[in-house]
């Protein structure tokens, strides 16, 4: 019992941060599934969502700021794809990847310009940021609501992909662009849809994440973004359940390591895990055998 | 009889290489038309440029009097043309029924009647309804690719090498289906290396050689032509 009360806070924090990584990781894995592109700008879109909330909350009440954050982030994700990736549709994959890195730096530097490089205090969202006590552990409510919220969002996403027409088109496009076009599927709409979903989930993730870690800096997206990416690779990039499970595993292990008193090594652990996965199971937990799209 | 498709001076290049060198041909409505020729003659390039997967370098493609050239694939197929691609290209990760529903992706009406129609044509697909398409045999996948194309209710179906890689008995089945589909009112443009079967099935045939059309005639006539016999039919029987 003593052990539990000592470790429960870390376990809860781990599940919570794992859920937040999951929301970001889905964006990586879905874009990869369709475009075979690692969208390096995804972590920065997450950061921008945080900044939008910071500035929006100064001029409007939170219940308006939250939907605004969701909408603005979705628009940014959509525009980034149209401007930076779409013109390169038939270019070599490497060019698109360089373009993604460019967008990443662009967003970081825009944020640097806007914020002056100072960490911006994230607003406390009523109810979500409230302090509560669960099983004798004092934490913010966001810790408790993140896991069920993630489960609901993932379930909704899986339903969308498995049961709807656009979901079917997404699954088809992830296998074969040309034949999908022959079916009359507008590939560009499918790709835009993917970025919209990914950005929306990243925005939700940022609302939850920054309610716990309250400073928003221009590079704050890098670490969660990288960890979510590792989670996506760990789970098998292209697989949504893989990304979610990978994210929970990484979030939980990271916090258990912190609980053991090895905080310094918690990030190192994440990347060591990535290396081990790449050596022993390059396709990840749920990844398909690599076969390039024709 | 009016032509559903009229191709004029069509040329296709990849880099500096001309795959199709200014060909012209007609597809009369309601007929089976075949384009035969050896590997690399430009047959697939012709079909792919009609449906917009490859940008033609020049010429014009008129479908029911309307210029197709320059339109994206998803616009062209919405006009009532479809292509059964070479190598079948079914969506292996989707079920048979999902593949069929994707064939009708651009339609928003009820699909039940069409599903029943293709199940009636291909009873095997009904049995395999809920299986992933990747688990089907090559012949079944070809049937699925054709059925999927039918689901869009096309006026013109183009088929690229539907007999490729199939056992002779299955090939016979594919050609039976082609005739059956045609009887039900769909115009067919068939590209084949299996000249023997294609000429038997076709009302009108064109022979392609290194990017040009070198001969034209009724399918039955070309099948009796000595030159064709020597060049293609011998090979086809190998």
Question: Your description of this structure?
Answer:
The complex is a heterodimer of chains A (294) and B (238). With 294 residues, chain A is mainly alpha-helical. Chain A has helices spanning 2-35, 42-59, 62-85, 93-115, 141-163, 165-175, 177-182, 187-212, 222-235, 240-259, 266-280; strands at residues 120-121, 131-134, 137-140, 215-216. Chain A is globular and about 60 Å long. Chain A is built from eleven helices and four strands. In chain A, 73% of the residues lie in helices and 4% in strands. Chain A has one domain (12-279): ABC transporter involved in vitamin B12 uptake, BtuC (Orthogonal Bundle). In chain A, β2 and β3 form a beta hairpin. The longest helix of chain B has 16 residues, at 168-183. A six-stranded mixed sheet of chain B has the order 6-7-8-3-9-10, with helices on both faces. In chain B, strands 2-1-4-5 form a four-stranded antiparallel sheet, covered by helices on one side. With 238 residues, chain B is an alpha/beta fold. Classes of the chains: A mainly alpha (294), B alpha/beta (238). The A-B interface holds A 165, 168-169, 171-172, 174-176, 178-187 and B 51, 53, 72-74, 77-78, 82-83, 85, 89, 91-94, 98, 101-103, 105-106, 148, 152.
What is the fold's blueprint, element by element?
The complex is a heterodimer of chains A (294) and B (238).
Chain A: H1 2-35, H2 42-59, H3 62-85, H4 93-115, E1 120-121, E2 131-134, E3 137-140, H5 141-163, H6 165-175, H7 177-182, H8 187-212, E4 215-216, H9 222-235, H10 240-259, H11 266-280
Antiparallel strand pairs in A: 1-4, 2-3
Helix pairs in contact in A: 1-5, 1-8, 1-9, 1-10, 2-3, 2-4, 2-8, 2-9, 3-8, 5-6, 5-8, 6-8, 9-10, 9-11, 10-11
Chain B: E1 3-14, E2 17-28, E3 32-37, H1 43-50, E4 58-63, E5 66-67, H2 73-78, E6 81-84, H3 96-103, H4 112-121, H5 123-127, H6 138-150, E7 156-160, H7 168-183, E8 187-192, H8 195-201, E9 204-209, E10 212-218, H9 219-224, H10 226-237
Parallel strand pairs in B: 3-8, 3-9, 6-7, 7-8
Antiparallel strand pairs in B: 1-2, 1-4, 4-5, 9-10
Helix pairs in contact in B: 3-6
